[in-house]
Amino acid sequence: MPMKNTHGIIIPVLLLIVIGIIMVYSSTALMSLERYGHGFHYLMRHLFAIIIGLGAMLLLMRMDYNKLRVFIIPLLVLSGVLLILVFIPNIGVSAGSGSNVKRWLRLWPSTFQPSELLKIAIVLFLAHYIDRNAWRMKDLRYGIIIPLCVLLPFQMLILLQPDFGAVITLGILTVILLFLGGVRWTYLAGLALLSLPLIYKLILSTPYRRDRLLSFLDPWQDPLDKGFQLVQSFLAFGRGGLTGVGIGDGRQKLFFLPELHTDFIFSQIGEELGLIGASIVLGLFIWLFIKGVNIAMQTEDSFSYYLAMGLTIMIASQAVMNFSVCLGLMPPKGLPLPFISYGGSAILINMVAVGVLMSIQRITSSKPIAMRNIPWGGRPPIRGRHYKWMVRQK
């Protein structure tokens, strides 16, 4: 397989992984030393997840992505079963001692988060569903009701964990793909309006979500308790300045900022690498997003188009939300930064997504079809990119 067909998207991914390795070690060395007697515990687990992820990425890169259609139903069923197993004692793992948050399964020698697998399964399902029902997506039944009937049971299971961040991610992903698939915007707007009371109730009915929202609105009102995490994130960026304090010299890892190696690792980057380092990370994600969209726009069939767009949006939306949380633009959601944050499940699934994108690019670029020679105005629309359009062009 000629690597020149896939190097455009793999370069930003590898650079983000390298930055992640450095930042995970910098943010966890002291914590690892205190808990395990050496400074490499979290780093070794992080590297193990990366190795597994690289293997999966290379395997999927060489695979025909069209063969993934046969795995859609099994993946959805498996995701549902794993989400249920999370609630079984001694199988589901809590976030900490005394915590009611159960999002992981105990898998030796590590843990696995089923909601990450569900993201891939939902993208595959929606890409396949829109491809098969392209001419019916403007109908309320096929455009809204059926996709929601598939998604909502999974969303309910995730809410019970609870994992509001994963619910938001899946919701955004679904709405964008349905919009690109040609669903009437009025239906989607109506769905959003109907969801507002439910979101309001979910936030205010749970004390910790309510506290997160209040601390987001004014973290300085209670900087030592409810607003502590966000205030410390601001202090990290402020202390980093333009060039940062240097790798390993940050203060927030001295048990000031909770979840520094996962949800708030971008704050660690801002402190140790400064505005320049944070901007480089942001630029790499923009590079990755542009490459992903370009891969989608070069495809010839609607399944590969929606699959590539879905995977790209999946990665990009998580990055945007993580940046927003660290910068105080969104309430804390518990979402890792793709390819950088510590967390084996997220790393594995995001690298699987990149592997599928590389497979789409490899197969598309190897076909002697003149899609790339079609003037931009004559290309299929970004929204409602239907297979029948492709047939007419040929």
Question: Can you describe this structure in just a few lines?
Answer:
The protein has 13 helices and three strands, in the order H-H-H-E-E-E-H-H-H-H-H-H-H-H-H-H. With 394 residues, it is mainly alpha-helical. It has one domain.
Structure overview:
The protein has 394 residues and is mainly alpha-helical. It has one domain (3-366). The chain has 13 helices and three strands; from the N terminus they run αααβββαααααααααα. It has helices at 7-36, 41-62, 72-85, 114-132, 140-160, 164-180, 185-204, 207-217, 228-240, 265-297, 302-326, 344-366, 387-393, and strands at 92-94, 102-107, 110-112. A three-stranded antiparallel beta sheet has the order 1-2-3, with helices on one face. A hairpin with a 2-residue loop joins β2 (102-107) and β3 (110-112). Residues 370-379 and 387-394 have low confidence and may be disordered.
Map the helices and strands.
Blueprint: H1 7-36, H2 41-62, H3 72-85, E1 92-94, E2 102-107, E3 110-112, H4 114-132, H5 140-160, H6 164-180, H7 185-204, H8 207-217, H9 228-240, H10 265-297, H11 302-326, H12 344-366, H13 387-393
Antiparallel strand pairs: 1-2, 2-3
Total number of distinct structural domains: 1
* Average pLDDT score: 86
Uncertain segments are: 370-379, 387-394
Order of helices and strands: HHHEEEHHHHHHHHHH
Coarse shape: globular
Oligomer: single chain
Cα-atom radius of gyration? 21 Å
Number of helices: 13
Number of strands: 3
* Largest sheet, strands/sense/barrel: 3 strands, antiparallel
Strand order of the largest sheet: 1-2-3
Name the structural class.
mainly alpha
For the terminal residues, how far apart are their CA atoms? Answer: 27 Å
Helical content band: 55-70%
Name the beta content range.
Answer: under 5%
